[in-house]
Structures are given as C-alpha cells and as structure tokens.
C-alpha cells in the first residue's frame, strides 16, 4: 500500500511540475502571436529588453520616421534574454537592435558583481552577432532609478565596462542616458519617474528620445 501511495505522490508531483511554465514563457508566446497577426517588417529597429521598453507602448510616436518593433518584457534580466535568444532574434530581420537590460539582474540579487552582468551581456551580444554579424547593435546604459539607489555602484561599474566593450565592437554603440536624466547639480531627476520611482514618465522617454535619435538608423 505504501508503494502505491508513494507512486501516486510521485506522479502527482510530476504532473504538477510538468504544468509549470518557465518564467516569461507567456510573454514569448504573446510575441509569437503578435508576429502571426502582424508579420514583423524587415529592416526595422528591434527593441529588446525589460520594462523600460515594455512600458514604452507609444514608442512609435517618439520616432515617427522609423519602423520600431518593441519586444521588451517587464522584469526580464540579461539571463532571460540569453535563455530566449532564439525567440527574440530568429523571427526578425532588423537593420538595428537596441537593448535595454541589466537593471533587473542587480535587483534580483543585490550582491551580484558587475562583472557577472557584463559577461551576461557579452553572451547575448555574441548570440546577436552569430545571427546578425553586420547590423548596428546598441546598448542603452542602465538608468539610475531612485528606488534602486543602493544598487547604483554596481550599475555604474557595469555601465562603464559595457561601454568599454561596445566601443571596441564594429557597428556598435553605447547610448548613455545618464546625464540627460540629471539636474544641473548632477542628481537624478525624480520627476522623470512615476510613483514607484522605477518606471518613467513621458518626459523621461522624451529625454531618452533626444539622446537615442542620433544613433537610430
């Protein structure tokens, strides 16, 4: 009887875990559905990353002369971009990829070393280059969200090292949005953030646009 009960428990656990989906699985399915309903344009600018892109729902209005495909998914880390690299890259034929990601890596583990995040980014960059060896690839610097101030030292180090890496790559740039988000005293402007002090207001996105425009293909 005990053996039967144990077998039943094992089967129950197996069925339970089989039903569990990986983190962000549904977001990726939503992207696939969008691609079926509206096949992505070729030679567009592909945005990949976390919620700063996800919440930029009207990004096309900020760049009216560009074709933008927004594939940001909120909460994502560079580890997730690596895990879902095929799904994030294979369906598209962009002329440029712009990445905003890394902030959540530190938020997920406040002891995380900057070098770990840099290596995660390099791994994703390598996957992009495997598929798209010649297109423009840009990385937007990690923003200094007031709600994550204790993480700023690691973020600053990661930004510096990723900037150094990108400067050495062909057809690549580091888009630094740090200064444009500061006041005249060099402090982060809290008025550019909504109540959670993490996500941005339309004015924050307008300032991003002013910095990004010269890099847009």
TrEMBL record:
Keywords: Signal. Residues 1-18 form the signal peptide. It comes from the Bacteria. Residues 57-207 form the SGNH hydrolase-type esterase domain. Pfam families: Lipase_GDSL_2 (PF13472). Gene3D superfamilies: SGNH hydrolase. InterPro entries: Ester_Hydrolysis_Enzymes, SGNH_hydro, SGNH_hydro_sf. This is GDSL-type esterase/lipase family protein.
């Amino acid at each position: 009887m005990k053996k039967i009960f144990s077998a039943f428990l094992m089967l129950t656990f197996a069925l339970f875990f089989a039903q569990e989906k990986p983190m962000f699985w549904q977001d990726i399915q939503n992207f696939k559905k969008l691609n079926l309903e509206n096949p992505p344009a070729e030679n567009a600018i592909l945005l990949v990353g976390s919620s700063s892109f996800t919440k930029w729902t009207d990004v096309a209005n900020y760049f009216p002369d560009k074709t933008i495909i927004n594939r940001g998914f909120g909460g994502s880390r560079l580890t997730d971009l690596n895990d879902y690299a095929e799904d994030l890259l294979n369906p598209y034929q962009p002329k440029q990829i712009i990445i905003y990601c890394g902030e959540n890596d530190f938020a997920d583990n406040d002891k995380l070393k900057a070098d770990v995040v840099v290596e995660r980014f390099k791994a994703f960059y390598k996957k992009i280059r495997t598929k798209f060896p010649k297109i423009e690839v840009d990385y937007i610097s990690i923003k200094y969200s007031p709600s994550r101030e204790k993480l700023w030292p690691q973020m600053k180090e990661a930004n510096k090292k990723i900037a150094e890496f990108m400067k050495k790559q062909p057809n690549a740039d580091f888009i630094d949005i740090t200064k444009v988000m500061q006041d005249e005293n060099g402090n982060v402007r809290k008025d550019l953030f909504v109540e959670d002090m993490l996500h941005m207001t339309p004015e924050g996105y307008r300032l991003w646009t002013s910095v990004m425009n010269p890099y847009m293909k």
